[in-house]
Target: Class I SAM-dependent methyltransferase
Amino acid sequence: MDKRLLEPEIQDFINESLSVNFSKLALQKNPFSDIAWSDILTQIGCKLKAKDKLPSWFTSENILYPSKISLEQTSSEITAKYKANLVEGKTLIDLTGGFGVDDYYFSKKINRVVHCELKKELSEIVSHNFSILNVSNIECINKDSSIVLKELNQPFDWIYIDPSRRNDAKGKVFMLADCLPNVPENLDFYFSFSTNILIKTAPILDITAGLSELKNVKEIHIVALNNEVKELLWVLEKGFDSDTTIKTINFNKETEEKFDFNLNQLPDNYTYSLPKEYLYEPNSAILKSGAFDLIPSKFNLEKLQQHSHLYTSEHLIEFTGRRFQIKNCFEYNKKEMKQFLENTKANITTRNFPETVDYIRKKWKIKDGGDVYTFFTTDMNNNKIVLICAKI
Model:
């Protein structure tokens, strides 16, 4: 950690540069000869990213930022606050500390937090930032977390892990065994120090695959921000052998959309229907959960088709997702497309449809945006249809 970055004139320069075009700034000559220009640019670029993601860090003076990738991998304040509400007790150890955002919020719920980080510079940056943020109950240790657990040799109320994929992991399939630390391999070792384990994984991890690698999974939380799934949270409890609960939440600007269910919960009988007056599209967290067949009974809706994952009703209802009024519905063919959508402007969504959004746009010369929302999908009779809608 280069403490010269904290010198007043450099901090002033960093703050003044936040409003300057970053690409042009990078081409400028370094005004400070005794410190690397790349280090200053890193501080400027990361602070820009922190403005929306980490407002508490952004608005605090003399905060130091790590590498770009460390900041990209860290939780946002919104998701970190959510995680903090999942834990309670006196002690927690974070085996993969990183930039420490999660630990900052854990420290508001837990008396003592241990932050383990292998990278010395990152550990020093985090320790410095915690002092700036007036956090005194987090201990930063620059060691391998397995060694820390053995050396401390004490029970913790919670263990928190955010495993990262190894650089040598091949293929596109995301498995926990391909990450560091290897949680499945070390799970019994971790349970010897705590009854409760909280694991954060990337959204790319398949839930079924995760369940096949882990045991004692009590809850899985699917957390989305503005309809983009940001992380999966796995709550493990030693000895737990009952059904897993899936909890989904989507944080929008003004609302929190929640939908919970039991993993082995069977859907009630439901019916398929041709499009009616209103159309419903589940949010991304629900789509990730796979609870497609539970939605009709939960919300008293009918499904358009088994694999379309769109729903309809005659009367408008509250829903954890987007709602639309259907203005027009027609079979997907050249005549209808030329009449209603060719050379127009519209938002396009495809569900269970053979053509991609980009292909449809190019084929029919449809520009993106506007107030018209179109769904290209398949109905209960397996016909390819187009729905033209207005968002509610």
